[in-house]
Design brief:
single chain; 179 residues; mainly alpha; 8 helices
Length: 179
């Protein structure tokens, strides 16, 4: 919700972040008014436009050539960075655990527990890893630490500017809406 609100702000600066959150919250609330089956129908199909946007994001970013291979050093701070990123990945994935009861409600009692686990795990791990790795790749272009050995932008780094102006949504906006 927060990144969506940031993206709305990046596309239209007249819409503040709090208003973007309200827009998304009201749209979500509106869908839930129609009941459980409509919510499930929405969730069944809503991955398609999201997947299309991620493919466009991937294509635009790959075409931009702005990916920067940031070498990683060794030591205590780098180990802390790796562990911190691991915690982010874990937190990103565990947010879905509360939905487990929702998604298995239509499963027959005779369904194999291993089969349910495997399909649930595959259904989560593939998009989670794809999204996380795409986010890592795009964030390298922002280069918020300002490593002088990387690309020099003639008019300033648009990815860093988007990130500083509107957070993660601004970074996505900088990729999707290049100057």
């Amino acid at each position: 919700m927060i990144v969506g609100a940031q993206l709305i702000n990046a596309v239209n600066n007249n819409v503040p972040g709090w208003a973007g959150i309200l827009i998304i919250a009201f749209c979500t609330f509106f869908i839930t008014l129609f009941g459980y089956k409509v919510v499930h129908a929405y969730e069944f199909w809503s991955w398609i436009p999201t997947f299309i946007v991620f493919m466009i994001l991937l294509g635009e970013f790959a075409h931009s050539g702005a990916f920067i291979n940031l070498p990683m050093g060794v030591g205590t701070s780098e180990a802390g960075s790796v562990l911190s990123f691991g915690a982010v990945v874990f937190g990103f994935a565990t947010g879905w655990t509360s939905y487990a009861a929702d998604y298995t409600v239509y499963q027959p009692a005779t369904q194999s527990k291993k089969k349910i686990f495997l399909w649930t795990w595959l259904g989560l791990i593939v998009p989670l890893l794809f999204t996380e790795m795409l986010g890592v790749a795009v964030m390298t272009a922002a280069n918020v630490d300002g490593d002088p050995k990387t690309i020099v932008w003639p008019t300033g780094n648009p990815y860093a500017d988007g990130y500083h102006n509107s957070g993660s949504g601004g970074l996505i906006g900088a990729v999707l809406f290049p100057p």
